[in-house]
């Protein structure tokens, strides 16, 4: 299994160790090749809101030297793991900027057919609270990327560092990591045959209706949909 891990912090703290628990358990079920990135080191610049990726091409992003490397790793992965500690009840700024950089592959723009046969996992931790909105931020993007099956893990660790987490909470994290890893490994064998849920299919068709016949709205998006046969009835999850 090819795994890409995007760490939303440079710190190897609670969130990092939670992700490693999952990966270590997956390794017991399947051989793993891991592509790992740390933010902001591997994507140091914030999204500038220049619209280049939306109206021109993702290759026109001013930070394409970094984004193209990450995109290639995502494309070649079977499992996409996005992690973040909770900062003010949401993801870290660097994780949010990462998600902004890859907004061009949302179903509302240019749905990448490679995404629909992947498994996604969002992982967040907090010293106290804020996991729910942080995890939602991550899983929302995974959904709009078209990821076929998505999991979420969150934990209030009641500590500022991994070494200070009470043993009872660590055991809880290990139990949830094991359960999730086993489910991921089980679904991995059939992910190529899995179809997305009703909401994904419904929204894809809504986007199709909106874009069909309207190249003036976004010529790059329109050309992408036409080239991939989406207007002619081809579905990205059938690729």
Summary?
The chain has 239 residues and is of the alpha/beta class. 41% of the residues lie in helices and 15% in strands.
Walk me through what this model shows.
This protein is an alpha/beta fold. The protein contains eight helices and five strands. It has a five-stranded parallel sheet with strand order 2-1-3-4-5, with helices on both faces. The model has no long low-confidence stretch (mean pLDDT 95).
Please give the structural blueprint.
Blueprint: E1 2-7, H1 14-27, E2 33-38, H2 52-55, H3 64-75, E3 79-85, H4 93-101, E4 119-126, H5 131-145, E5 149-156, H6 167-188, H7 198-211, H8 219-227
Parallel strand pairs: 1-2, 1-3, 3-4, 4-5
Descriptive key words:
single chain; 239 residues; alpha/beta; Rossmann fold; 5-stranded parallel sheet; 8 helices
CATH topology: Rossmann fold
- How far apart the termini lie comes to 19 Å
Domains, number: 1
Total of helices:
8
Major β-sheet strand ordering: 2-1-3-4-5
């Amino acid at each position: 299994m090819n795994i890409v891990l995007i760490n939303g912090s440079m710190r190897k703290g609670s969130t990092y160790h939670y992700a490693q628990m999952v990966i270590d358990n997956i390794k017991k079920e399947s051989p793993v090749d891991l592509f790992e990135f740390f933010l902001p080191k591997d994507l140091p610049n914030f999204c500038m809101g220049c619209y280049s990726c939306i109206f021109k091409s993702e290759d026109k992003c001013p930070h394409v030297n970094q984004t193209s490397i990450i995109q290639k790793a995502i494309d070649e992965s079977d499992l996409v793991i996005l992690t973040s500690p909770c900062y003010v009840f949401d993801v870290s700024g660097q994780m949010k900027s990462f998600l902004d950089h890859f907004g061009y592959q949302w179903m509302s723009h240019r749905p990448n057919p490679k995404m629909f046969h992947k498994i996604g996992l969002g992982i967040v931790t907090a010293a106290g609270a804020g996991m729910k909105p942080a995890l939602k931020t991550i899983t929302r993007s995974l959904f709009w990327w078209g990821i076929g099956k998505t999991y979420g893990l969150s934990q209030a660790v009641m500590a500022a560092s991994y070494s200070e987490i009470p043993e009872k909470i660590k055991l809880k994290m290990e139990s949830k990591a094991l359960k999730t890893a086993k489910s991921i490994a089980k679904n991995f064998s059939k992910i190529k045959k899995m179809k997305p849920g009703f909401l994904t299919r419904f929204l894809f068709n809504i986007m199709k209706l909106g874009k069909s016949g309207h190249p003036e709205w976004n010529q790059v998006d329109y050309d992408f949909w036409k080239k991939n046969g989406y207007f002619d009835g081809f579905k990205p999850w059938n690729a």
